[in-house]
Structure formats: structure tokens, C-alpha cells
Amino acid sequence: EGDLEAAQTELKKRVNQILSLRLMPVVIGGGHETAWGHYQGIHQYFGKEPVAILNFDAHFDLRPLVDGKYGNSGTPFFQANALLEQNNQSFHYYCAGIQPFANTSSLFAYADQNKVEYHLAERINNHPSDLTFIEKVIQQHEKIYVTVCLDVFRASIAPGVSAPQPLGIEAQYVINALRLLKASKKVVSLDIVELSPKHDVNKQTAKLASCLLMEYLHDY
């Protein structure tokens, strides 16, 4: 009902509730603002245990709060970093699929300042079978929160997003990464977000999101 913060607080409660049942939450939905509610639930449950964030995204989503207090789809990982700083915890954030022209120079500066590790979309497209970035995250962390923003993909396969990417990545890279992550047994929570049905074409993006989820859930 238009109250973003209340919705995020409710999502936080639900995620914590699911984790308390020793189950893995899967959050699907619209904007990436869901990640802030999702992450709060993860943080509430795991407390001082470090949880790395692996984001497949064209954008860092590290923008500062509007007027210093209002969040949106571009702020969730800025908010996560602030929460961790308040608790004297380290920020372990990895982003695969970053587009140089979809992020400002100040966002790159903030990412570098806060030791964010990122993998450019161009590098992924040039070496689509190279999963060393994902392997590094798995090797260095015991708990991983995976978040997939659908605007990381090429616009030809994911038109139903708010910021289509003509130079986005192909789905197979993320599918291979998800298979590797599942095999590691280190993923504690997953979301697939940024679907905008009114911008979709023949439900193409929705079907892509469904395929990604089924790839993760399927046991080979």
C-alpha cells in the first residue's frame, strides 16, 4: 500500500522466520529494494556470522539514501553496508555484470573505497565460461546470499526490466554460476528481482526468471 519501509520490515520478519525453520528463503519480485528487507532478515538471523553478498547486476545499487533517510531500488547494498558498520562488521560484497555506463564515477569510487569486488559485463561476455570470480566467492566464504537482478541480462532476452541493457550478459553464465553455488552448499538465501511485467514482451523476462529458479532448485 505504498509504504516501502513497512513492506521491507515485514519481509525481514518473514525471511528470519523461514531461516529459523532451517529452510532457505527464496524471494521473487519487483524492484531491488526487496534486497534490503531480505538482507535485514538474513542479518537478524545470523547475527555476527559473516554472510557474503553476491549480486548479479548491471548496477552496484550502492546509491545513498534520498534526503539521508529514504531508500529505493538503488540503495539496498548501501543500506546493508551501513548496518554492518553500525555493528562493527565487515562488508563482503561482490557484483557480477557491472556496466560502466550504468553507474556513476562516484559509485565506482564508493565501491573501491569499501572494497567491493566486481566483474564487468564486458569481461563476462568475452569469457562466458570463466567462473573464477564465482569460485573465489565460494572459496572465501562459508555463507552466501545470492541476488539476481534481471537487468544484468541482455535486453534481447530480458526486456521486462526498468533499465534494459543492450550489452548485458547471457543467461548461461548465471545458470552455470547458480549450479556451482548450489553444489557448494553455502547459499543461505536467494532472490530474483527487478521484473517489470508492464515492460515485458511475451512474458519473456518472467519465463527467464522462472527458468533460473528451476535451474537452482533442480537436482541433477
Topology:
Layout: H1 4-20, E1 26-28, H2 34-46, E2 52-56, H3 76-86, E3 93-98, H4 105-113, E4 117-120, H5 121-126, H6 132-140, E5 144-149, H7 171-184, E6 187-193, H8 204-217
Parallel strand pairs: 1-6, 2-3, 2-5, 3-4, 5-6
Largest sheet: 6 strands, parallel
Approximately what portion of the residues adopt beta-strand conformation?
Answer: 5-15%
Radius of gyration: 16 Å
The total of helices stands at 8
SSE order: HEHEHEHEHHEHEH
Oligomer: single chain
Would you mind describing this structure in some detail?
There is one protein chain. Helix content is 42%, strand content 14%. The chain is of the alpha/beta class and 220 residues long. The chain has a six-stranded parallel beta sheet with strand order 1-6-5-2-3-4, sandwiched between helices. α2 (34-46) runs parallel beside α3 and α7 (171-184) packs parallel to α8. The model has no long low-confidence stretch (mean pLDDT 97).
Name the features.
42% helix, six-stranded parallel β-sheet, 220 residues, 8 helices
Short note summarizing the structure:
The chain has 220 residues and is of the alpha/beta class. Helices cover 42% and strands 14% of the residues. α1 packs parallel to α2 (34-46), α2 runs parallel beside α3 and α7 (171-184) packs parallel to α8.
